[in-house]
Amino acid sequence: MRAYAACGEPCYTRHVFDGITDKNVVFFNVMIRSYVNNGLHHDALLVFKTMANQGFYPDNYTYPCVLKACSVSGNLWAGLQIHGAVVKLGLDMNLYIGNGLVSMYGKCKCLDAARRVLDEMPRRDMISWNSMVAGYAQNGRFNDALKLCREMEDLKLKPDAGTMGSLLPAVTNTSCDNVFVCE
């Protein structure tokens, strides 16, 4: 099943998945990831729903995948439901789930919620920060994107290629007064 998923074959992955009589969370995760990686976000969310309906508990590998499905498809409603579930389970402090939430809220144009999640994360990495920078830039809040980059530098975080890629729209759509050099 994983081999088909890794080869970008969601139909074959699904065929094997459907033939497994004794499923567990790992099989569901592989199926969800296969759908997400192949742009079949609605199908990924349906498998997630089936997983829950069959009494399987998603884990810290499941949630980032379904949050990505929500992000890319713009499904804020499902993202809100998933956020509520991870809070109830105490998984909202997980770095990868937090990153997924920041990205999902940013792509769904809920930038205040994205920033709140970022601020509440006990641990952040470059993906956390870059997701927020991208959220601001993708939604036309270029000054906020630049301000966040300055905040990163104040925290001694060195912007990387992801940061710079996200900042390109910001620096091309602001006045020269707002441009600064990241070292």
From TrEMBL:
Gene3D superfamilies: Tetratricopeptide repeat domain (1.25.40.10). It comes from the Eukaryota. GO terms for molecular function: RNA binding. InterPro entries: PPR_At4g14850-like_plant, PPR_rpt, TPR-like_helical_dom_sf. One of its GO terms (biological process) is RNA modification. Keywords: Repeat. PPR repeats lie at residues 24-58, 125-159. NCBIfam families: PPR (TIGR00756). This is Pentatricopeptide repeat-containing protein. It comes from Salix udensis.
